[in-house]
Write a structure and sequence with these properties.
Elements: E1 4-10, H1 16-28, E2 33-38, H2 46-54, E3 60-63, H3 73-85, E4 89-92, E5 97-98, H4 102-135, H5 148-156, H6 161-168, H7 172-178, H8 184-200
Parallel strand pairs: 1-2, 1-3, 3-4
Antiparallel strand pairs: 4-5
Amino acid sequence: MSEIIGYARTSTADQLAGINSQIRELKKAGATKLYTEQVSSIGKRKELDAALDFLREGDSFMVTKLDRLARSTRHLMEIVDYLQERKVALRILDMGLDTSTPSGELILTVMGAIAQFERSIMLERQREGIAKAKSEGKYKGRPKHINADNVREMKENGSSIKEIMAEHKISRASVYRLLKPYGRTEMNDYIEQIKKRQSRN
């Protein structure tokens, strides 16, 4: 037998009345099982995950408002894809959206197109930002791999820690790390030995 699963959420800063109001609306609309939680939209939502895991083919998943469910259009479409795979309908009460109906499917198609558009705009802005940074000489790209042997060779040839930092554009801690297997104490002893050999020459 199919069920109507309701999900209610308020942020941790909201009043208890907010969650109670959602529960009343969901029950009035026919929810047979409820999952509720107080957590921000960007926080880990255990009850939402539990509700989605509980759903079975033929069920309906219901929320009072879109912002109670998804943090963005893209996030919404990820949930919708999951529901469609399980053959579960989505109902959003204040929008009158029910994906089990033709009009609901149409609205969902439009929202999917918007999500794709937002994605395209984001990627375009990212490419423009990289191009601008490159033209201004500010783009560094991905951090390059630092060869520990090169660092050790520089130190053995008499380079100071600061010189190694400048050459490879890395921090002092990174230099020490790359000079391993020498521990910090052993490395200091090693450096002193190099200095002594250089002073003799």
